[in-house]
Automatic annotation (TrEMBL):
Gene3D superfamilies: MFS general substrate transporter like domains. This is YNFM family putative membrane transporter. Coiled coil: none annotated. It comes from Bhargavaea ullalensis. Its main location: membrane. It is a multi-pass membrane protein. Residues 20-399 form the Major facilitator superfamily (MFS) profile domain. Signal peptide: none annotated. Belongs to the major facilitator superfamily.
Length: 402
């Protein structure tokens, strides 16, 4: 029997709180591992399937497209059907393609499965934060949210590293089967650990009212600037990681896939970057820290132009610190600037964020083909700074008119 929404939320002292942390942490670790699992394999796919760089990158961008579609649909459904159903279903369904993809005869079928997997992956990011806000006491929710977001970064790092390392020693098929087995274990853990919703209150609004809320946010110029920033930040960030295996696998580096996989540990800076950004923003304000994060990110991207492996790795670490600082505070700014329907505003930011992932995976291919790493890096390092200047000028004009 489901308890009524009047039940008290969980605190740090409750065992159920730690079950939530464990279940969502494991779910997030798998979801984001699965999402970025093919990124180190792009050069391998171009050779094995005889395809171009832009086609190979579809293994990331089509997964992201599926995720975007899933987010829009599941965000609406979870407001009406509950959170735990979609969180649990997401992990279970996302495991299945890993046991099929190693045996597909063509790259087209692999892309189709990655697209469907992307839709399945959306259940966790679409419902997890809302579940935390409903079931966890407000004084403990920020801690729970920080831990959850940290596992997002940890999952992205783990998926890239594991597939690269296992592929170098065995094969990409073995890597996918390994992730599938780990995912199945995690799915069982999530099914057993995640407490049922006690405080979920189904939304009474219609789909039309939800669409009106989305359209209201899209008419808010301050929010549009933040959505655009989300796209730009992630486009540049993803662009580096997408083409890094091609760059480090060629002269003068000539690194193996295993060696390239170790560079993904730089991504782990995000585990501490988000909480650090929140602490700094509390002392100095959201905007100054976010601006600093953008400048640090662009500086780190430029550092990857160095001709040695340590220089590239240092640049990746600096870039990750700046990116997770800017991203977490941009997300917080969306929640602050939304006048109402804050949940739908956050969903739109999440969608814009993943549009940046898709764009950074595929749309930057012409830059790589035309000018290699140097042209790619110059463009994606300058782009966030240019957008930052534009956003500061635009915000000033908007506020002057109000």
């Amino acid at each position: 029997m489901v308890e009524q929404p009047s039940d008290k939320p969980y605190t740090l002292r409750d065992a159920a709180f730690w079950k939530i942390i464990g279940a969502l942490g494991f779910a997030s670790l798998f979801i984001f591992s699965a999402m970025y699992a093919t990124q180190p394999l792009l050069p391998l796919f171009t050779e094995e399937f005889g395809i171009g760089v832009s086609v190979s990158s579809l293994s990331v961008s089509m997964t992201t497209l599926g995720l975007i579609i899933g987010l829009l649909v599941i965000s609406f459904l979870s407001d009406r059907r509950g959170r735990t159903l979609f969180i649990k279903s997401s992990v279970v369904l996302a495991v299945i393609p890993f046991f099929i993809m190693p045996f597909v005869p063509s790259f087209g079928l692999l892309i189709l499965l990655r697209f469907l997997q992307g839709i399945a992956l959306a259940g966790v990011p679409a419902a997890a934060l809302a579940y935390i806000s409903e079931e966890v006491d407000r004084r403990s929710a920020s801690f729970a949210t920080a831990l959850y977001i940290s596992t997002n970064a940890l999952g992205g790092m783990t998926g890239r590293f594991v597939t690269g390392w296992v592929t170098e020693h065995y094969s990409w098929q073995a890597a996918f089967l390994g992730i599938g087995i780990a995912g199945a274990v995690i799915a069982v853990a999530v099914l057993l650990l995640l407490p049922s919703s006690r405080r979920f209150d189904p939304a009474a609004g219609t789909a039309k009212e939800d669409m009106q809320a989305f359209l209201f946010h899209l008419r808010n110029p301050l929010l549009l600037i933040l959505f655009g920033l989300g796209i730009v930040l992630q486009l540049s960030f993803t662009g580096v990681w997408t083409f890094l295996p091609f760059h480090l696998g060629a002269a003068p580096f000539n690194l193996s896939l295993e060696a390239i996989s170790y560079t993904y540990f730089a991504y782990g800076i995000g585990v501490i970057g988000s909480p650090l950004a929140g602490w700094l923003a509390g002392k100095f304000g959201l905007r100054p820290v976010r601006i600093t994060g953008i400048v640090i990110m662009s500086s780190g991207i430029l550092l990857t132009l160095g001709g040695t492996t340590p220089a590239v790795v240092a640049g990746l670490c600096v870039m990750c610190l700046g990116f997770f600082t800017a991203h977490s505070l941009t997300s917080a700014s969306v929640a602050r600037d939304a006048e109402h329907h804050k949940g739908s505003a956050s969903s739109l930011y999440l969608v814009s964020y993943y549009i940046g992932v898709a764009a950074g995976s595929t749309l930057l291919s012409p830059l790589w083909t035309t000018g290699g790493w140097e042209l790619l890096i110059l463009v994606i390092a300058v782009l966030p700074v240019v957008y930052l200047i534009f956003s500061l000028v635009a915000r000033k004009k908007i506020r002057a008119r109000r």
